From TrEMBL:
Any Pfam family: CBP_BcsQ
UniProt name for this protein: Septum formation initiator
Rv3660c-like CheY-like N-terminal domain mapped to chain residues: 8-115
InterPro entries assigned: Cellulose_synthase_operon_BcsQ, P-loop_NTPase, ParA/MinD_ATPase, Rv3660c, Rv3660c_N
């Protein structure tokens, strides 16, 4: 099956621009220099770009209506340009070189499989040491073990690196420093190929010693690519929100707030919650054991109770050895992770996860 965009033009300068733009999107083109040559490709090409020079001739052939058709021009856009756009059935006019970035994105979008957006879950601690990073890692590991394509994003420059928590800090692959300079859209396929991966789990973390803030645009591009290319995206957030963390929260399907069940922990969580609530709506409480009951903590915070994050014997020693606790569905951490994943993905196209143990 053809999987290359179709360009219809006799304008060599325009064609040179389109070939360069396609290369930036990682694709090649099928080129038709006359409407008759375009007919076999018109219905099957993922995207069609009609040059302004052949728009009228193409319109005379009355091509079947379809989506992802653009009219490209290197001239100033005038009223007659819009007439040709409508006549050929294009959805927009793209003037080059001013708007070539849009065409790069359209080419790249057309080449990626269309699917429903993946689920994005943010995890944040109500106080330091509450266990948000542990929960983020466990969710990602449990989901990938169930063969869900999972992306784990470390959004805390001062957190020590979630790849270290996983014991994979030496694994080669892209880190945040390799992506922050990237402007515009990131291909989901390219992101998957660039990141360190362990089976169905891909991880985006920081280089050692790196403390630079993540630009909001970089976070937006990564999360958009993540939702296109993965079933589940888990973002481990810092407690002190920066612009990148706020960007992640604004795109979250659900945010899990990890609170410790003591008075100070509830008060600190309430302060974090007040800030988090400015950026997202669906916030749920995960409670660490303490002197207060789980429901008391959730009621104090006025958010739904989503689960109990148990203490794990010898967890600190295991983490220092680069080991995470076992996450079988019958273990406390595994059962919590399985229940949360099922709740996150239910009623979505990815609702094929194991049911939580009863």
């Amino acid at each position: 099956m053809n999987n290359r965009p179709l360009v219809i033009t006799e304008d060599r300068d325009l064609l040179d621009d389109l070939v360069r733009i396609a290369a930036a999107a990682g694709t090649q083109l099928d080129v038709a220099h006359a409407p008759a040559h375009a007919r076999p490709y018109w219905p099957i090409a993922p995207l069609v770009v009609v040059g302004d020079d052949l728009a009228d001739a193409m319109a005379i052939t009355a091509p079947p209506s379809r989506d992802r058709v653009f009219l490209a021009t290197r001239e100033l856009i005038e009223p007659d340009t819009w007439r040709r756009c409508v006549a050929v059935g294009a959805q927009a006019v793209v003037d080059l070189p001013a708007n070539e970035r849009r065409l790069v994105d359209e080419f790249a979008d057309a080449l990626e499989p269309r699917s429903s957006a993946g689920v994005l879950a943010c995890v944040i601690g109500g106080r330091g040491g509450a266990g948000a990073s542990i929960l983020s890692a466990c969710l990602a590991l449990r989901a990938s073990a169930d063969h869900l394509r999972t992306l784990l994003v470390d959004a805390d420059p001062l957190g020590g690196g979630i790849d270290t928590l996983l014991g994979h800090e030496e694994t080669s692959g892209a880190r945040w420093a390799d992506l922050v300079a990237r402007e515009g859209r990131i291909s989901a396929t390219a992101l998957q190929a660039a990141l360190p991966a362990f089976g169905d789990l891909a991880v985006l973390s920081f280089h050692r010693g790196e403390v630079g803030a993540i630009p909001a645009q970089a976070m937006r591009s990564v999360l958009e690519a993540g939702r296109r290319g993965f079933d589940l995206v888990v973002v481990d957030l810092p407690r002190h929100l920066d612009s990148a963390a706020a960007e992640a929260l604004s795109r979250a399907t659900t945010t899990l707030l990890v609170a410790t069940a003591d008075v100070r922990g509830v008060l600190a969580s309430a302060q974090v919650l007040a800030e988090v609530g400015n950026h997202t709506a669906d916030i749920r409480a995960i409670v660490r054991p303490g002197v207060l009951g789980d429901e008391t903590v959730a009621e104090s915070l006025k958010i739904p109770f989503a689960g109990h994050l148990p203490d794990h014997p010898r967890l600190s020693a295991a983490l220092n050895r680069g080991e995470l606790p076992k996450l079988g569905p019958r273990t406390p951490l595994g059962a919590l992770s399985t229940a949360l994943i099922y709740d996150l993905l239910k009623d979505t196209p990815y609702d094929n996860t194991p049911r939580p143990p009863t």
